[in-house]
Structure prediction request, 476 residues.
Amino acid sequence: MSIAVGTSPPPLTRAYKTFYGMGSMAEAVVISSITQFLLLYYNQVRGLPAASVGLAIAAGLAVNAIADPIVGSWSDRTRSRYGRRHPFMYAAILPVALAFYALFNPPASLSDGAALAWLAVFNILLQQALTAFHTPHLALGGELTTRYIERTNVMSYNTFFLWAGDTLCWLTSFGLFFRATASHPNGTLDPARYPVFSATIASIVAVILFSSSYFTRRRIPWLPKAAPDAKGFSPKNFITDVGQSLANHNYRLLLAGAFFLSLMQGLRGGLWIYTATYFWQLTNSQITWFALGSFVSYTCGAAIVTTLHRRFDKRRTGAVAVLVYCIGPALPLALGWAGVLSADTPLILPILVGFSLLQHLPYSLMTTTVLSAYADIADENELRFGARQQGILYSTQTFFSRIQQAVGAALAGWALTLIAFPKGALPGHVDLSVLHGLAGAFVLSTIPGALTAIFYWKLGISRESHDATRKALGHD
Prediction:
């Protein structure tokens, strides 16, 4: 690893960490939008079969998944005056915005088959563009510092802005774009809302991506560069990079955990809006109150994660957090299935918002822990193979984000078909047996997610192992 000649790098200010973290805010806005509304839009608004829509989303994401490690390897080996990461980040801005808008605006004249093809194609393009930004962006965060705890602090900014993006999507979507009217009490079922929604979100995302790219450029001279003898990107070198990353035991544990977690997250992401709208019969204005629970959780998570890593280290913090994250969000639906809670329960909204703390707080802790651990694994691989591989290592995060959406969308579409969820359904007019099936599918998703806690508990990353690795590298 070579560093620019001169004085040591300037300290990482809060402003710099903020602009870095903003990049994940844009991805969260996009992912939250398509996770919450894409299946609903093409199924309930456009009237296409849920299973077919789920498969179309899954097919597009599956085709795109291989792009994540390719972009990671390519950026690891890139040499330019703008460093290894920023050329990709700049190039992704406009394609992300255009593809997002197109995804929610298929021509009305399209047949069902053509509409499904439109969905798959533009979903592929959107995911490709997101990968071009997000994988190098995460790798950038792993390169900003070599300090064990400071890495946690950097990634806590990243995780906080994931919350900010998700919350921005929630508040603008349910409180503004899809607010209730006399003609459409549930605004998400009004097709006229989607052009304004998609155009506004696309514009916001473009501004955020540009700001994150532009205001982090001053750090480029002090960032790691490709080794002088490193070869450029090629299929052969890509395979070598993948093989070297998979040779790391801790990396394999994170991969296994991410796979099972993605099954749970994808299924829940596709079903959540159905549970909120039909099981709990919440209005869009009521749904916006969940932002309060997420704000408390993510603010608390950002404040305590560094202390938890100092006290319990990353392994224990991550394992316990993921276990709570798997169980917590399923509890109210389990109680609903058992008849303890229902849409008619007094104070059901504050009860559900309270339960949301068990979703967002552990998710914040888990995400920060994992992102920080990838940087430590990059140190281990540098010691073993002599190359910094943040790009290929962090591509895991974006890769499984795509798998999460692909498999989750397919599973959600399959689950809705299995329980015979009706098209064009109105809240309050869905059979109780169907609602119980919906709750049951959500609760059962806990099983694959909980397996992740086992893999995280087995991680061999600690402050002691990090210090030993850094000492062997001669960097500290």
The domain at 14-219+228-473 is CATH 1.20.1250.20 (Growth Hormone; Chain: A;).
